[in-house]
Design a protein that fits this description.
325 residues; alpha/beta; D-Maltodextrin-Binding Protein, domain 2; three-stranded parallel β-sheet
Length: 325
């Protein structure tokens, strides 16, 4: 009888620990970038704050540098239901909801702050947030500033004619491909983790990315001219599987969404704060920064991009331009 009582007592004492273990939530957070970039720092900021607000009930582990696979592969993992988040962008998400891709269009806005009008609009709530949920994705965050994207090459690029026929590395999504095709170059898809070798070996002649990503990939070691074309004012999104998200406790869902917004603001702050510092680093590494770029000519040349997406809702570009005013 005493043995039975001890067994019961032992089981009772063990229950709280077991319950705590069962209730702990672990989420993997993937991206393709280096750890020196603001996007990674914002992901770590998010993970720390979520852990603090949930008393370590929700633990988010960040996996940089394509450790969990390419951005496209991770998005597919999310769609299939894995408890994974990703740092991605509207161009990649357009694989699932075509209209989302317009948020990544060339020269869509003159400065990043203008995106606020779009993200606060009814169009965004219906055509992006709700449409993404129907496609299997819940956006923990959309709108963290990733930076203006510029060109790195072996010569200055001041006008579209300067990249005519040039082989340019682009990520494997249609917005980039169509943008650089409209500019007269030869877009070639290469994973970001392979870009250094692709430039070094002459597989591509040029690449494009924000200053932080160019520096994080050490591309200044293989190309010595950056032209500030600013062809995309880039933002990032953090998707998670919508069914998985909906199964989480309500208080956890609230924390994830609230901290996602805080992280968006933090990434935007870090990106803006660090951009000038990256320019100084490039100059210190012997890189020429070309600023006399004919932006109106690039804007005009790339306008054809917006006619290259037959799956878009008719009149989408006009709708977005109207919201932007």
């Amino acid at each position: 009888m005493m043995i039975a009582r001890r067994a019961i007592l032992g089981s009772t004492l063990a229950l709280p620990a077991v319950a705590r273990a069962q209730s702990q939530i672990r989420i993997r957070f993937a991206h393709s970038l280096s750890t020196v970039e603001p996007a990674h720092q914002a992901a770590e900021f998010f993970a720390k704050n979520v852990a603090a607000r949930t008393s370590n009930r929700v633990l988010i582990e960040v996996f940089p540098g394509e450790q969990l696979g390419s951005g496209r592969d991770v998005n597919e993992m999310i769609r299939q239901g894995a408890n994974v988040m990703n740092i991605t962008d509207p161009g990649y998400l357009s694989d699932f909801v075509p209209d989302v891709g317009i948020l990544n269009g060339p020269y869509l806005v003159d400065n990043f702050d203008q995106f606020g009008k779009l993200l606060d609009s009814d169009w965004y709530r219906v055509s992006v947030e709700q449409a993404m949920q129907k496609a299997g994705f819940r956006l923990i965050m959309m709108g963290g500033y990733f930076g203006a994207r510029h060109m790195i090459a072996e010569k200055p690029i001041r006008k579209p004619g300067d990249i005519a026929g040039m082989t340019v590395r682009v990520p494997p999504n249609q917005m980039w491909i169509e943008t650089f095709r409209s500019l007269g170059s030869r877009p070639t898809t290469v994973q970001w983790s392979e870009i250094y070798n692709a430039l070094q070996q002459g597989v591509v002649q040029a690449a494009e990315a924000p200053f932080g990503s160019l520096w994080g990939a050490r591309l200044q070691e293989v190309r010595k001219v950056i032209s500030t074309t600013g062809h995309f004012q880039a933002m990032v999104a953090w998707p998670i599987n919508s069914a998985y998200f909906n199964r989480l406790p309500a208080e956890v869902r609230t924390v994830l969404l609230e901290e996602g917004q805080r992280a968006a603001a933090e990434q935007t702050r870090l990106t803006r704060e660090q951009e000038a510092g990256f320019v100084d680093r490039f100059k210190g590494a012997g890189v020429e920064i070309v600023t006399d770029v004919d932006i109106p000519a690039f804007r005009e040349a790339s306008a054809a991009t917006y006619k290259a997406f037959p799956k878009w809702t008719p009149g989408l570009h006009e709708t977005v331009r109207k919201i932007l005013g």
